Amino acid sequence: MMQQDQVVEEQLQNEDDDDSFFQDIDMLQNQGINAADLKKLKSAGICTIRGIQMTTRKRLCNIKGISEAKMDKIKEAAAKLGDAGFMTALEYSDRRKTVFKIQTGSSELDKLLGNGIESMAITEAFGEFRTGKTQLSHTLCVSCQLPGPGGYSGGKVVFIDTENTFRPDRLKPIADRFNLDHEAMLDNVLYARAYTSEHQMELLDYVAAKFHEEPGVFKLLIVDSIMALFRVDFSGRGELADRQQKLAQMLSRLQKISEEYNVAVFVTNQMTADPGATMSFQADPKKPIGGNILAHASTTRISLRKGRGENRIAKIYDSPDMPESEATFAISNGGICDAKD
Ligand SMILES: Nc1ncnc2c1ncn2[C@@H]1O[C@H](COP(=O)(O)OP(=O)(O)OP(=O)(O)O)[C@@H](O)[C@H]1O
Ligand SMILES: [Mg+2]
What we know:
The chain is α/β, with parallel strands linked by helices. It is 43% helix and 20% strand. The chain binds adenosine-5'-triphosphate (ATP) and magnesium ion. Magnesium ion (MG) binds next to helix 8. It comes from Branchiostoma floridae (Florida lancelet).
């Protein structure tokens, strides 16, 4: 009996730890940081103590109205309140227990992904046109609202559209398949169209502020597609280094958001011919764009290719804990589903 109590006690303790996960920067007022400065941080998407720890001094100084002296004071105050970042492996394993998976609509694809799209991580799907990247994105908008395995409760989603291919009407037949009310379902999808790569980055500040405002409500952030605007904004060879630097900043922001707010990040990506491939006898001479920066930022990468008819084949491309294998799924009016044969 004693032991049982101890377990309960420990669980309560862990729940408390979870709260500290969302420590609001307003707490810094007690440390002598004034409300006006905290507002400036929030408008830059930095809303939690952890958010401050995750932001470089340089970036803090770049926020309008934050001088170097102020930045030092803020960093110091955050260090006092927050923990240094160390935890035991046991504590870390408890944190990992809050990780959830969002179902894709196809049980085969879920299996391939180890049960679905994972939170606190970036999942990237790349493939040629019509391979189902946008259809998968639409399906996830609906499926993330459904309760899932492992006690997943369902939640809201943010959709950042860089190619103008998001269609709310497309979500309706998908909702019908899962018996969701259209209006309630649409109300849970927060949509923004990004027009430039810079705008795409600015939207992430807004997203972070929104996630902070409604803690635990949003479960998924979709960017369809991650690279399209970078391709337009940085076109010449001479701009490649600049592009990769900006891309790295965006991905690092996405990674931080996924960890800070425990959400799944799903991004799509295009492909391009690999100029080096003709030399290496590769079977598939195309590869995802974005180079090593994107390759390293994505926790899980799946490549999509066409199969027969509506069928598509997904392959794990790069994952820390999943073997390289394939799954066949189909695109239907009700969204992504299992292939019939
Ligand atoms: N309502 C629907 N029912 C069945 N199939 C559909 C439906 N809507 C679209 N599709 C199929 O989805 C495919 C297009 O997929 P999608 O738009 O996701 O491709 P994509 O990978 O995003 O391509 P791109 O690189 O051009 O963005 C087409 O083959 C189309 O027939
Ligand atoms: Mg698309």
